[in-house]
């Protein structure tokens, strides 16, 4: 199972977009407190475009609480990572956790130092420090999905039908 972990997310629009991506990919979402917003916020609902009820998510008091309740392979997305996200071989037989930090400061150095071999960076130019977290989550999930051959995802548009363009 693919899991997305947001460490102390601050911006509701980002979390709403990430919730929609999780709904689209059947990924489980883990939210580590404190949150910079209320989950009942209209901004979350607007960004998630009514897909929030399709997201499986869990709230945690802190990072230790998250670690106590989850096992698998952890990958930390940070602008300080030295290995591109696409160079990891994501396992098919273990829970995969893609961990992203808060928008203002990322994941604390104290946490990252324990997992240096699992710190990754999505490559970008020197014009910016890093990508937006919602964009980063989408890139990361779809790289894992690509490597695993898109498990349990459909490859056609579900509402108008598989042959809509040809009709």
Q: Helices, strands, pairings?
A:
Blueprint: E1 2-7, H1 12-25, E2 28-32, H2 42-48, E3 57-60, H3 63-69, E4 73-77, E5 83-84, E6 96-100, H4 109-112, E7 119-121, H5 133-147
Helix pairs in contact: 1-2, 1-5
Write up what this structure looks like.
28% of the residues lie in helices and 18% in strands. It has five helices and seven strands, in the order E-H-E-H-E-H-E-E-E-H-E-H. The chain has helices at 12-25, 42-48, 63-69, 109-112, 133-147, and strands spanning 2-7, 28-32, 57-60, 73-77, 83-84, 96-100, 119-121. Strands 3-2-1-6-4-7-5 form a seven-stranded parallel β-sheet. Helix 2 links the parallel strand 2 and strand 3 (57-60). It is globular, with a radius of gyration of 16 Å. The model has no long low-confidence stretch (mean pLDDT 92).
Observed structural traits:
167 residues; seven-stranded parallel sheet; globular
Query: Which consecutive residue ranges, at least 5 long each, have pLDDT under 50?
Result: none
Radius of gyration: 16 Å
Helix/strand order, N-terminal first: EHEHEHEEEHEH
Going across the biggest sheet, name each strand in turn: 3-2-1-6-4-7-5
Net shape? globular
**Range of strand content:** 15-25%
Largest sheet: 7 strands, parallel
Q: Number of DSSP strands?
A: 7
* Averaged pLDDT: 92
Summarize the amount of helix as a percent range. Answer: 25-40%
Number of helices: 5
Which class of secondary structure composition applies to the elements? Answer: alpha/beta
**Cα end-to-end separation:** 36 Å
